[in-house]
Amino acid sequence: MEKEKKRVAGISVFAAIFLTGFKLVIGILTGSLGILSEALHSALDLVAAIITYFTVRISDKPADKHHHFGHGKTENFSALLETLLLVITCVWIVYEAINRLVSGNTHIQVTIWSYVVVITSIVIDVSRSRALYKVARKYNSQALEADALHFSTDIWSSVVVLIGLLCANFGFYAADSIAALGVAIIVLTVSYRLGKKAINVLLDRSPLTLSDEIASIIQLIPDVVYFHDLKVRVAGADTFVNVTIHLDPGLNIKEAHAISHKVDSVICSRIERCEVHVHYEPAD
């Protein structure tokens, strides 16, 4: 598991290095704000990819005497950092785009390389986002999911820049700056979704759909008369569950323990990387 996560994260680092350098060179040569904003976006993608690479190396380490619940939240903290990087990108893009539109300094030089760099970026971003999403879903990794969001955002922002270049090619140079604003709007939308999810996990907000799923699992176990105090928290790819179940008061300790173990086993069979603590009491 760790090897596959490290491999896909490592490839993303090299992809981000290539795209950042390529976009920066072409952006400087053509003076295109759209391409320069994409270069900055890719540069922050590179920082995010590096953060993700080291995060996945740490997050799967087992619990120790200093981290009783493991190291999973490093993934959520990483996702929050990547969100802040995306917001910083937006601030610069919006400032520069508005400045160019107000001053009227929107002229850019559109060359064949302008199109080559944008189309190349789209192809690489599609490939990387698919690979990252696949592994993120497989191992429930928010760090890889955040990295995938970075690359998938690049796809849409590159399409917006491509449209701006096409318009500039026909003399509508302001389209490049407008396209850059479009990139900023896309990035802000993704940043909000990513940041909200990371903050919820870091603040131990209970994932409602997961809590409902676990509640429905317990309800199907016939030996459990009723239950309460179901608490669910997530840290990275790990899920921690605490619940109090009420059993037939005529059961002995061994029988009650067997039922609590059954509850534990059933939940863990349905929820990957799940740690369950069951407290049992006699039913009224």
CATH domain fold name of the largest domain: Alpha-lytic protease prodomain-like
- Helical fraction equals over 70%
Level-1 CATH class name of the largest domain: Mainly Alpha
Strand order of the largest sheet: 1-2-3
> What characteristic shape results from the CA principal axes?
elongated
Query: What is the domain tally?
Result: 2
CATH architecture of the largest domain: Up-down Bundle
Quaternary organization: single chain
Sheet/helix structural class: mainly alpha
Short description:
The chain is mainly alpha-helical and 284 residues long. Helices cover 71% and strands 10% of the residues.
Question: Any overview of this molecule?
Answer:
The chain has two domains: 2-202, Alpha-lytic protease prodomain-like; 208-282, Cation efflux protein, cytoplasmic domain (Alpha-Beta Plaits), CATH 3.30.70. The protein is built from eight helices and three strands. β2, α8 and β3 (274-282) form a beta-alpha-beta unit. The model has no long low-confidence stretch (mean pLDDT 80). Helix content is 71%, strand content 10%. Strands 1-2-3 form a three-stranded mixed beta sheet.
Topology at a glance:
Elements: H1 2-30, H2 33-59, H3 73-103, H4 112-139, H5 142-169, H6 174-202, H7 208-219, E1 226-235, E2 238-247, H8 253-270, E3 274-282
Parallel strand pairs: 2-3
Antiparallel strand pairs: 1-2
Helix pairs in contact: 1-2, 1-4, 2-3, 2-5, 2-6, 3-5, 3-6, 4-5, 5-6
